[in-house]
Amino acid sequence: MDEKLEQVEKILKKYKQEQLLRCYDKLIEAKKEELLDQILKIDFDHMQKLYEETKGKKDFKNFDIEPLPYVDKEKLEKEEKEKYQKDGTEIIKSGRYAVVTMAGGQGTRLGHDGPKGTFELEVNPKRPLFTLLSETIREAIEKYDAVIPWYIMTSKENNSQTQEFFKRHNYFEMGEENVKFFIQNEMPMIDTTGKILVDDKGMVKQAADGHGGIFEAMRKEGILEDMRSRGIEWIFIAGVDNVLAKMVDPILTGLAINRKCLAAGKSVVKNNPKEKVGVFCKKDNKPSVIEYTEITDEMAEAIDENGELLYGESHILCNLFNIKAVEEISINKLPYHSAFKKAKYIDENGVIVVPQEPNAYKFEAFIFDAFERLNDMAIMRVKREEEFAPVKNAEGVDSPETAKNLYLDFIKNKK
Prior knowledge:
Elements: H1 2-15, H2 29-41, H3 44-53, E1 65-66, E2 71-72, H4 78-93, E3 97-102, E4 120-121, E5 127-128, H5 129-144, E6 150-154, H6 159-168, E7 179-183, E8 186-188, E9 190-191, E10 206-208, H7 214-220, H8 223-230, E11 234-239, H9 250-258, E12 263-269, E13 279-283, E14 286-290, H10 297-301, E15 313-322, H11 323-331, E16 336-341, E17 345-346, E18 352-353, E19 360-365, E20 378-381, H12 384-387, H13 400-414
């Protein structure tokens, strides 16, 4: 331990981050060891670089931005649609298809104490988000008479609770061997002076590294290895909060295959030019997504010859990847974006500080940054009322109330 402590002290002195050992002497032996290991895993050069980047602002004038072509599922020719359906169905029925749900978040914003996936939606009968998603997967398993493994990305914070929830629900009759869990990576949080924060337990203050961290986590946690052993070729990735996510989609799969793309995404048309959603685009001739905070009013309002928005295809976090693309993306980290947040920490006097205003930067990678690693991707426009009912806010837009209404309408129309 003494040797490891000396090694850590030397590193911290070099990077002027000695505050990370602020509570070391008060910790029990096991926690001391854990703290030292935490610190040794930190790439301090990278953290310094990320801190410097918080002082600048992205300028999209340096990029060539243009619309990314898409196909409208409703306007596909009959023969084309049948071809996609046939090719995609073959993949699913032969066991070469898997689904991944990103479920690392807590239900705090919804007033729910626990993993977001365990939040209950007031449908009849009321059911947790995980249950609603499982019903969609099980329906596909029965329809295609196939094994469709379900991988759940959790976080350090909610992994145990999530696994206990699935155990209580008997893995939704899918078989424990076909439901796998893996933990999202974390990144240290830093204050406005570049110092890494100490959390209220005396450890390194960390936060989940965003949904873009999924590729690296799948590799590190052995998920890609498990998929390869099963012969999986296509992987559908979506968030836990979209109760209408159609995760097993032969048409999207067939579209990607026929377009010879290693990835595909679903879009819904923007409600209006000012809707707060990221939209698909091409950036320097590569597929990408531009966030609503980054798009100019001129771009947001531009229309084509048919009167439709040029940048109107909303990214709804429903994406399909070939395993080759996932393996390649997982090797090199995606860029991190900073967000200024409120973070509880221990100050230099050993006092726990609960800030009223944002005081620290957290760093997140976004899944759509992976698109820029690809030469092309297929985009398929789907109906919002059939495939997009997110539960993000406690009330108003994208709330449990709006998701419930969309879900109930969908079920009624399905009958």
